[in-house]
Give the backbone structure.
Amino acid sequence: MSARTQRVTISSSKRGFTLIELLVVIAIIAILIALLLPAVQQAREAARRTQCKNNFKQLGLALHNYHDSFGVFPPGYISRNVATADPASAETGPGFAWGALSLPYLDQGPLFNQIIFEQDATSANNSPLGATIIPAFLCPSDPAQETFTVNDGTADYELGFSNYVGVYGFGNVSMSPGNPAPKGIFFRNSKSRFRDITDGTSNTLMVGERKARQDFVQGMNGANSESTWYAAIPGVVRPSGSMMVMTEDQPTLVLGHVGMNMMGGMVMEHTPNRVNHIASFSSSHEGGCQFLLADGSVHFLSENIDYNTFRWLGERDDGQVIGEF
């Protein structure tokens, strides 16, 4: 037999995959992909959560540096000619929030220097700056738009989005924005110092997460809860779709509470990710959200945390003993 004939004979003895074998291979590949995709998604979320944590660390360092410079933390937001007990409806401005005042310590000195703090946040000179997108204020897990629009009854204002709001303490953020009871670290015209945090800096929340839309409770209207680093602009309302539309909505643009007393002596008790309310804390992370504590550390708090523990963490001087969290 010639070499050429031998090669032809050998080649003719080879065969391809049968249909069953091909289907088995395809099924195995599909199973492997199904197993791999959740792992990839989990890895991506872990990376996003780490970036969110790093953002908190930057904010913590900035707030501590602000305290080093001025002897106090920045106010939750600034309002002129109001008494401590006045509701948000009495405010006229300027409205600048703790985030705007912290800009020099977040490598945002040029932006800070453009803001004219002697004018209102709504002035023609300042309002365009409020739409600036600052990555340090954005959680990468939240798919919200990077800017949003509010209206104060006379004009629209585009605001740079922020996933991070100051911890107000306990109380109605709109009815008593300058007088939480008990107090957190940030409220209207606040001047909180380290020595005011008598519960201990490692037991007191300072900044927490909030996603752009609260829709955790099925069967109830959701709430548009967009927040900003820029200002609590007097008289604004959220875009359509909010659970509650109020003309004194501005404090919730920059602050969040850990509960409040309601009519009939009831207490609104809500841990993160548990209620459709514009003043609550929430995140797109599975199972809870992250918080910056007054000592600069960052903790992930489960949505299943004991409510009293969560509330006491949000109050700087309630004297309550807090266990593990």
Notes: The radius of gyration is 26 Å. Residues 97 and 150 are 16 Å apart (CA to CA). The chain is about 25% helix and 15% strand.
